[in-house]
Amino acid sequence: MFTRSMRLIFSVLLVTISGMGLVMAQGQGPGQGQGRPGGGGGFFLPPLLMESTAFEDGGIIPPKYAGRGENVQPGFTFKNAPEGTVGYAIVMRDLDVAMMGGPIGILHWLAWNIPAEAGGIPEGSLPEGSVTGANLMRQNTYMGPGAPNGPRYHHYVFELYALNAKLDLPATASVDELMAALPGKVVAKAAYVGRFRSGE
Question: CA of 21: how far to CAs of 10, 26, 27, 30, 37, in Å?
C-alpha cells in the first residue's frame, strides 16, 4: 500500500519523465545545440573546421609537403570558430611511431598565437604574430613527413586548438609546455589527417 510520501515521489517522477520526453521529442535534449538539422536527439556542437587545398582530409600527403621532398608547410583555412576566439595553436604529429617509450608519436611541428582574424595559415608561412615552437629535432620550423617506404602509411594529424587568450610561451617551449598552457583557454578543437610513405 502506497504511503502519502511514496505517492508524492511517484507523482514527481512521472512529471519529470514526461517533461524529459517532451523536451527530447522537440529535439532539445541535454547537450543539444540549437538548430540541429533534422531536429533529432543527441549531443551536438557546431564544429570548428580546418580545410586545405594541399591534400584531402584523410588523403595522401604529396611529396611537396614531405621532409624528404620540398618540405613546404601546407596551408589551412579555419572556419566556424566560436565567438571569443582570439587565436589558434596547431600541433602536427606522426601517430605511427613510439619514440623513447613515449605514447604520443613524433612531434613534427607546433605553432601558437596564430591570430584569429587571419582565418588560417598560408602555404609556406605563418601570419605575423605567430610563434613556431621546437619540433622533435629542436628546430623551430615545420618538419614534413618522413615515413619510410613500407607496407603501410603513417598517419600525420594536424591538431587545431581555438583559444580565448594568447599564450605567454617562449619559442623554445616544448609540446609538453604548450599542452600545459592550454587548459582553460581551449574553446574548440579540430583535426586534419594526412597519410604518407616514401616512394609514392
Answer: 17, 9, 10, 12, 19
